[in-house]
Design brief:
Order of helices and strands: HHEHHEH
Strand order of the largest sheet: 1-2
Radius of gyration: 15 Å
Shape: globular
Helix content: 40-55%
Number of helices: 5
Strand content: under 5%
Structural class: mainly alpha
Number of strands: 2
Largest sheet: 2 strands, antiparallel
């Protein structure tokens, strides 16, 4: 079975051109299992570029090993072949409601003092959706 960026929140079944979960175009969702390895890598590359564009405004990775340890500690699945900013996105998606301080995850938040990351994740998700709609 091919790996997929799907996070189980598919909105293309409701008529969205861009999935609100994984940010793929609806034809990419429909045809995913027909895609060659090169086509899959191209989609992952585009998604990773978009994720890095948005998340690099919010976070700096200070310790890659600590980031990996945090993902493993919280049992968060991440694809080692993907950009590290996609790992941060997964961390936020799964833990934003309970995450208090990202420095313990090998990250520095670049936007100043903060009490929690749930709102940050919502802003990031909205920015990623807007970016995916552009291209």
């Amino acid at each position: 079975m091919k790996s997929t960026p799907c996070i189980g929140i598919c909105s293309t079944v409701y008529g969205d051109d861009i999935c609100r979960g994984c940010k793929r175009h609806y034809l990419e969702v429909i045809d995913w299992n027909k895609y060659s390895e090169e086509e899959i890598e191209a989609v992952y590359g585009r998604l990773d570029d978009q994720i890095e564009t948005v998340l690099s405004k919010y976070f700096k990775i200070t310790d890659y090993a600590l980031l990996r340890q945090s993902l493993e500690k919280y049992k968060i699945r991440y694809n080692e072949r993907r950009n590290e900013y996609s790992w941060i996105l997964e961390l936020l998606r799964v833990r934003s409601g309970t995450l208090k301080d990202v420095k313990h995850c090998g990250l520095k938040y670049l936007k100043g003092p903060i009490k929690g990351y749930k709102g940050v994740y919502s802003r990031i998700d909205a920015e990623l959706f807007k970016l995916a709609q552009k291209g």
